[in-house]
Write a structure and sequence with these properties.
Elements: E1 8-15, H1 18-28, E2 32-39, E3 42-51, E4 60-65, E5 78-86, H2 91-100, E6 109-111, E7 114-120, E8 126-131, E9 143-149, H3 153-163, E10 167-174, E11 177-183, E12 192-198, E13 211-218, H4 221-233, E14 242-243, E15 247-253, E16 259-267, H5 292-298
Amino acid sequence: MTRAIAGLHHVTAISGPPQPHVDFYAGALGQRLVKRTVNFDDPGTYHLYYGNRAAEPGSIFTVFPFAGAAPGRAGPGMASAFAYAVGDAVMDDVVEGLRGCGAAVSEPEERFGARVATVTDPDGAPVELATVPGAGGVGEDGFHSVTLLLRDPEPTRRLLVDVMGYEDAGHAREAGGERLRLRTPGGARGAVVDLLRRDGAGAGRQGRGSIHHVAFRAADGAEQAEWRERLLAAGMDVTPVIDRQYFDAIYFREPGGVLFEIATDPPGFAVDEPMDHLGERLMLPERYEPIRSRIEAVLPEIRT
């Protein structure tokens, strides 16, 4: 059995209308739109995937854009932020470049020895930029971390350490709360999970600008099956394997309430279109091809 999870696979959020989102992530932030498809459970809605140039696991941010979505709000039992890795040498240029695009960016502040700046996306969601030695521009080397907002971090910490192989990597008091840092060994992309407790944090609400779930990596189906057995033995209520076209997925709620997924690296995003042309056209799973014209008629145009 693999001793530890190999970091983050992807993070999935809910947004408002797709075009401002594409303009921000594929424009200002410089991410590659690696797949435009539909929500497999609601084909009247896009499912957009952004990543680095090679569309690698650990760099993928996905979003369900709902034009009429009400504003969301992170609360205990939800992921509250994710961070892209940014090279220390380019951080200041990145911050100035985003401000030049009109984005709201905080002054970088130190967190566990790294500089972290926060930029607000078009739906009001915080996107963190965290310096990593040797990294390139925003997200070229994938994610740095994800933050989980929890009322009591300890049960989630025990799951991540005792079952998923994470190691304790730091603790810091913050204004109105505390932050525990966990890191999976091996230095993979998205190796860090922060557990954040805030005094008096109110209830969260899924909606525009909120994170829906956090996915971790499995090298293949065999490893994913082993993780599933291990999580079931630990008392987690884990779904059967679900085919998501570009990976296979299993889902469960960790003890703090955050929806976790374990997704396989293969087959990847080039399974249904050439790597050089990822994200250029609407891709549908085979079962929706007979109704492609109806789907295309209701989806808004996206310009890249």
